[in-house]
Design a protein that fits this description.
By secondary structure, the protein is an alpha/beta fold. It is built from ten helices and six strands; from the N terminus they run βαβαβαβαβααβαααα.
């Protein structure tokens, strides 16, 4: 069976895109999924995390490919038969590469911090997905506790007919801290709330991709 492809895209920098890809990869692997990552971001932050993970979790089977956007199609064709899910970390600002990653996706996950500036800056990414006729799921990320603004931003997105994940990801240091050791919150047991949020997000993604539930 050919892999489903999830592209995490946000042309505005600083939205937490790469952190999400890494955290999702760990959670999906723990569910028994065969997971591949494709890093087309020139900063190669995801590749640095995978290198650290290979040192601290040599039994991890998360696969990584680093390619330029123009080589993405060939790489996907090569690895799709061997995996259940492929997560693409797309670059900010580079529209051509971002377009290629979005075009390849079965679902585009767009992280956004709950602020008016971030909401307005997300429009080019949403327009790219619309232009490629790709389904979009917006994720409220780095959400502060008890914020009325979060509810307002969620409502504004819904009023525009944009799908918003029921799960939202809190502004928790555990997400970044675990990456330092090549790990994810789903496997450390240190922050149960963070782990629960990531697991809930993976379940939402699985439902939207129609791939069914997996063992926790």
């Amino acid at each position: 069976m050919s892999a489903h492809i999830l592209t995490v895209a946000q042309q505005k920098g600083g939205a937490g895109k790469t952190t999400l890809v890494a955290q999702l990869a760990v959670a999906l692997e723990r569910q028994g999924r065969r997971v591949a990552l494709i890093d087309i971001d020139p900063q190669a932050s995801l590749a640095a995390w995978v290198a650290r993970r290979r040192a601290t979790r040599p039994d991890s089977r998360v696969h990584l490919a680093e390619v330029s956007g123009w080589r993405l199609g060939n790489e996907l064709a090569r690895i799709k038969p061997d995996f259940d899910l492929i997560l693409i970390d797309s670059p900010p600002h580079a529209e051509t590469d971002a377009r290629a990653a979005i075009r390849a996706a079965d679902l585009v996950l767009v992280p956004i911090q709950p602020s008016p500036m971030d909401l307005w800056a997300t429009r080019p990414t949403l327009d790219l997905a619309r232009g490629e006729a790709r389904p979009v799921l917006v994720l409220l990320n780095r959400v502060p506790p008890r914020s009325k603004l979060t509810t307002q931003v969620r409502g504004m997105l819904a009023d525009q007919g944009i799908a918003v994940a029921a799960t939202q990801i809190g502004n928790r240091t555990a997400f970044a801290a675990t990456l330092l050791d090549g790990l994810g919150v789903a496997e450390t047991g240190g922050n149960r709330s963070a782990a629960a949020e990531i697991r809930a997000l993976t379940n939402d993604i699985a439902k939207r991709l129609n791939i069914g539930a997996a063992a926790a």
